[in-house]
Amino acid sequence: MGIKDRLKTGIQKNLNQKYIRRLLGIIATKPVLYAYGSTFPSIADKYLNVFTIESLKNAYSESHRPVGYGSLFLPYEMFHALGITPFLPEVMAGFTAGLGLAPQTLKEASSNWYSQDLCTFHRSASGAVELDAFPRPDFILTTNLACDAAQKSFYIYSVKYNIENNFYLIDVPYYYSNKSILYLTGQIKNICMDLCSKTGVKFDISRFKEVINLSNEFRKWAIKVNNLRKTLTNYPPYYNGLNFILPFHGLAGTREAVILYKQIYKELKNYLSKEKKENSSTGNKPVKRILWLHLKPYYRNEIFDILGRENCRVVFEEINHVYWSELNPEKPFESLAKKMLSHFLVGSIDNRISVILKAARDYKADGAILFSHWGCRQSNGGARIIKDSLKKLGIPTLVLDGDCVDQNNSSQGQVKTRLQGFIEILDSKQNRRKETNVYMRN
Ligand code: SF4
């Protein structure tokens, strides 16, 4: 049994804070981390795992207090500037799926009356909170961006830990306007000041500026990675752009995010030069280019193996779109407010559609797959209009029903059948294009 499987089995048998803390204490030591890191075929993947483990170790350790729970789309620059160790329950719910813990956490959520209708990112996280498997938070911050599940379930956590006074909700207005920027800037500033007075830490503007500069640096490399991917088709083994949610959000404003994205860029650039050489000498078979919308299942599944076998590549994921402008270190609160307001899930569905259509053009997508995660109203509600909009560009969309966390709520057989049907559509589209090219040449 390999190191990763041993970790999985250990944690499945001992899903409690004490065991997790002990485990992180062991695997986050330099020699073990080094050995663990060497099990990853890509350096970017290795960095991703090492930084994730270090960030988790901090959240579980008493020496990195205060710990703040945060929902996904918060500006984590706030946390890093104020010295609050972030812990992202929704991202951790993805880990519960990957580590095979979701059956336990979901069962616990059910026995505590969490509805089956609640998205499993929140249901699994709530089960883990009920089981005391997550670290105790000092603060809980959330937002209505992009769904309203976090504001409700996170509030329940604040009640459980008796910290209702340390629960903060950032209300992001529907429209991007000067009035909205002012309103949001005020909220972010007030929350930061309140957190400072509660932690007894003096607000340090130079630290805030430093974090904002690091965030800009990370943004620059993330954009470079995205630009590179416009022509890249071959990736390092097991590279999956849907695995980078924690650094893209939770590590924004840290040195680690900069190091990681610089590394991804370096690694992908090497692949691109290799690919250019190979293509010019062998003239490789064209791949079917897929644009991925929303998230993916985080438990072991066959989706990406099937796509790989059928010569399909996910060339871009909507969630990796850099949606915000460069932040102004002289105006940190306003910049973070603008960052939140710029998210394509804020406001009308037209904002999301224009990001998707641009990505479809930029990445020359042959088809799109929208993973329709059970219970995600904000994403699934727009599925039909997204499909229709892509159709106008001649791009077929597969709306693939499933669940990112709960394996039992996804039929693997049905997923396979629907994927195969979709691949046939892409094949016939590719064949038609080939025939037209031959005809034009003749
Ligand atoms: S998947 Fe959808 S419902 Fe679930 S947390 Fe994300 S945005 Fe909210």
Give a nutshell description of this structure:
This protein has helices spanning 3-13, 17-27, 30-37, 43-60, 77-82, 89-98, 102-111, 120-130, 149-160, 178-199, 205-228, 245-250, 255-282, 303-309, 332-341, 349-362, 377-380, 383-392, 412-441, and strands at residues 67-70, 85-87, 139-143, 167-170, 288-293, 312-317, 367-373, 397-402. By secondary structure, the chain is α/β, with parallel strands linked by helices.
Question: What this model shows, in words?
Answer:
- With 442 residues, this protein is α/β, with parallel strands linked by helices.
- It has 19 helices and eight strands.
- A four-stranded parallel β-sheet has the order 2-1-3-4, with helices on both faces. A four-stranded parallel β-sheet has the order 6-5-7-8, with helices on both faces.
- Helix 3 (30-37) packs antiparallel against helix 4 (43-60).
- The longest helix has 30 residues, at 412-441.
- The mean pLDDT is 94.
- The protein binds iron/sulfur cluster.
- Iron/sulfur cluster binds next to helix 8 and helix 17.
